[in-house]
Amino acid sequence: MGMTVIEKIMAAHSGRETLEPGDIVDLMIDARVARDFGGANVVQHMVRYQLEVSDPSRTFFTFDCNPTGSDQKYATNQQICRQYARAHGIRVYDINKGIGSHILIEEGLAYPGSTAISTDSHANILGAVGAFGQGMGDKDTAGAWQKGTVWFRVPSSVKIVMKGKPDPALSAKDIVLNLLALFGADSLLGVAIEVEGEMVDGLTLDQRITIASMATELGAIIMLFPPNQEVIRYCQSRAMKIITPVTADPDASYADIREVDVTRFTRRISLPGKPHDTAEIPEEKIWIDSAFIGSCTNGRIEDMKAAADVLRGRKIAECVVLKIVPATDRVWQQCMDEGLLEVFKESGALVSNAGCAGCAAGQVGQNGPGEVTVSTGNRNFPGKQGKGAVYLASPEVAAASAIAGYITDPDRIPEQPAQRPAPKPEKRDGKSMPPKKTAENPVEVTGRVWYIPRDHIDTDMIYHNSYLSVTDVEEMGQYTFRNMEGYENFASEAAKGDILVAGKNFGSGSSRQQAVDCFQSLGIQCVIAESFGSIYERNAINAAFPILVSDRIGELQLTDGDKLTVNFRSGLIHNRTKDIKIKATPFSEIQLEIYQHNGLF
Q1: What is the mean pLDDT of the chain?
Q2: Model confidence, pTM
Q3: Which domain holds residue 155?
Q4: Cβ density class 425-461: b for 16+ within 10 Å, e for less
């Protein structure tokens, strides 16, 4: 039996002749990256556990979350990383360079068939060039720095075949928003997607990056594109070597093959709160306060040119703030050389230096309570880009909406911005609670249940990005679920020994370790869910925090306060209050080993 692309890449980097889904391998990582978000925590692990960097030439820092250095805690963390880098000969792509995943491609550090990790949940953007990239927590990253390898479970592969060609007016962002409409956030959970079809070979590198960057929002490990000649030539010029792309064997085995008719795709937006909750642009006016063009999804030069084409000769609405942030300094420089910055400024837009911008708390693009934003980012979970509502869209739609004052497309921009009612500000409050101690970790536990029958509880709901600068686990518990409606007081009401039960895709979103550590801080004994976000699952296992998967949770007839006994070795779950038992997936061998050793280190 032949192998898929992901199986071939993993086999080549683990010394194995063949691999199949479910195999666990020690994978050699070509590029090992920590950002300013998570970087200081990686350094903390390296120092605390006296770990040595195995290969500084493959080890990097990228400062893209706060490239302005405007936040004191981020600035402190960046300086911690710089000092560690100087002492250990590690290359720093500092605040003047741009988004780390893009830098890996631009600098030739990631190329077809290579592997890379980063403390960035969108490191799988590297699938755009046929490379394997993966976002990881700080413990995983520190382990890779020390060993040069990390353990991986080989994922199943799903092939998506694009049939036909889309409307030429549609952008790459429209294509991926249509895919989200078709597949949702969890039907492709944990798989590697291979993309084929008539339209694929004609996609530019920038278009591939846009689509690949939202594999995370599809729930997938990665979305891999077969490199065309343009991509191969680009990567060879950056990596300064001959590159042979990895292709699937003709007899490779796929978990599923899905055909998609792209001729039926339409221009779409994502409604606030869920990237996969997409809709066509409505006829009724959705008034906006701000627009953002940038991020790892839409910060490339083609995105900048598309926005400039819409903005040229026009002014943004008086009531709207338009923020534009190129993905990298190379893109920024090209915008200046080609006169795009002048177009942006003439339209009334704010242009910032390269970086993650609105997707991170440290740069332009955040919004306030009651503010409505149309954004070219990749996710719009509550609180991710601020306290307001965020609609996801293409650069063309974001630019057109900034001119109109409401969400629209370039073909329907009015001659004059329409009058709009004044927005109603939202109110938010919350109070801090003292931290609690972590729990013990026996093989069987009994505790009181918190039952939250919700799907897609993302890491911003669990642990909001405004608290990411906290590095002491003991302090993290007080912020747990602070950003999830209805559970803002969870931290003050939870007790040591409690057990949390939730629905599908728990922990989706960012790669933040804090979304695991906060539960340990409170003394929560374990989390049981129908499925977990891929990065969250790794972070929990590596932190020796028990998680179990079961698709039979409904059979337990849970209500808050039920007494539950859970055995991690057997997978037996017993609702003692109602005397109902089910079987969950027990700990894997590696999960049990890490758990018994009290963590990865």
Answers
A1: 94
A2: 0.86
A3: 5-264
A4: eeeeeeeebebbebbebeeebebbbbbbeebbbbbbb
